[in-house]
Amino acid sequence: MRKLLVSTIMSLDGYVEGPGRDVMALPMDGFFDEHNLERQRAAGTLLLGATTYMGLKGYWPAVAENPAVSPAVAANPDMADLHRETGKRNNEMRKFVVSDSLTEDDTAPWTDSTTIVRRADAHKVVAELKEQPGKDILMFGSRTLWNDLLVAGLVDELHVMVGAAVLGGGTPAFGSGPVPSLRLVNTRRRDGSYNVLLRYQVVDRDDA
């Protein structure tokens, strides 16, 4: 059985987006990029909401071809290989996007690697994906979707990078649904970064 992992970043005061849905208000530094690539290497499938899917699709194919177009690489050329590999993995990995509005016409250049799942079918499809053999299922962004799956008991781990920023408003990381019990597995820091990575395991209700 495969694990479903969520990798996200939030501010010190608990927001995954700043006011006006400004995700760039979060300190997504090299540590964040390195962790996400690490998780991609251990995963075989990406599971995404429509907004995150369209954002990744509009960004990473160009970076895979030429990492210099990434602002992070422009600021630090040493990040080029990391961003090139991230872009290539995003291009190649199997992707499931949960949306009632997207069509196949919206998926280029990822059409061959993308399956669109309607919202009413999401829990069933995710449960079936988890039952299949293979590597992890990984979620980036997609706050509405992962909160829904978390409440439904389908998420196995939360990897939350807490950024050294206080936004004062925006989109809170967690919704209003009852969040299952979480067990802190480990914490990580990296020299040169003010962010802290918290890895939580979702506790089975029978074991809570």
TrEMBL record:
Q: Which parts pass through the membrane?
A: none
Gene3D superfamilies attached to this UniProt entry: Dihydrofolate Reductase, subunit A
**Bacterial bifunctional deaminase-reductase C-terminal domain spans which residues?**
2-190
Quote any Pfam family the record assigns. RibD_C
SUPFAM superfamilies on file: Dihydrofolate reductase-like
This protein is called what? Dihydrofolate reductase family protein
